[in-house]
Amino acid sequence: MRLGLDIGGTKIDAVALDADDAVLARVRIPTGFGPAAVLGNAQSAAIQAADAAGVGPASFASLGIGIPGLVDATGGLVRHAVNLGVDELDLGPELASRLGLPVFVENDVNAASLGAYHLLGLDTSAAYLNLGTGLAAGFVLGGELWRGARGTAGEIGHIPVDPAGEICACGQRGCLETVASGGWLARKWGSAAPFPVLDVFDRADDGDARAIALRDELVGGAAAAVRILVLTVDVDVVVIGGGLSNLGARLLDRVATALDDQARDSQFLASLELSSRVRLVPLDQPIAAIGAALAGRPAGESIRI
């Protein structure tokens, strides 16, 4: 059995998986802010998930964690998780000492990549495209995460696509994230609606010209991200996840249509059959927490599907 935590900006989603990688129990608690709060609440979430499964933490083979920021997966160190108030935290070693079991720490998008791969029953190669406040991707090849030479594989949100675009938080100009993310759309829309992206899609459905233009620009950017992922790694499947995936078919169908429209003018793109390679992540599932738990598997042990 394995434990998994998805540590987000406001909540920690914790799951306990049985020996067949099915969810035994799930709990959610607030994340807190700052290293001490994040560490203490992560420990509490793991214990509560174990209790909900009817056993103690010592009954589990490992604890996996998905967390934003720069993650050293080898040493369990987390740096620059700014939304959590964490500049540097030895999360893996600290929790391993407190709980008495092996702890594995992954970037949250990588963890979600493994979770999506498992829940969709995939068995070859996949890219997980996280469309949320920002934009990033993760790769799973043959059931294993592919992080790249320095752990930055999938940071496609920082590929410049518009030389005249706005300055990105990374310091470059016109990055893909500045034209195809929920954060970008919210800034452009400027509405006080609690869910700006949903507001844009709803207004577009009602015929609002400005909303239609912004929606189509977002969809075009998401299609460009899919194209980049296939052209660079040639994965079998691109799974769209992140907060924007809650739009469901309203997003997926438009992205597929945009890919088909682009393919009409290019025999090369048409040969890639891009629209047929795009899937939507299963909704209402603890994707990243499940993936974090699976990250604790021994190297070479296959994900059960």
From TrEMBL:
Pfam assignment, any one: ROK
Matching InterPro entries: ATPase_NBD, ROK
Family: Belongs to the ROK (NagC/XylR) family.
The protein's name in its UniProt record: ROK family protein
Source organism (scientific name): Gryllotalpicola reticulitermitis
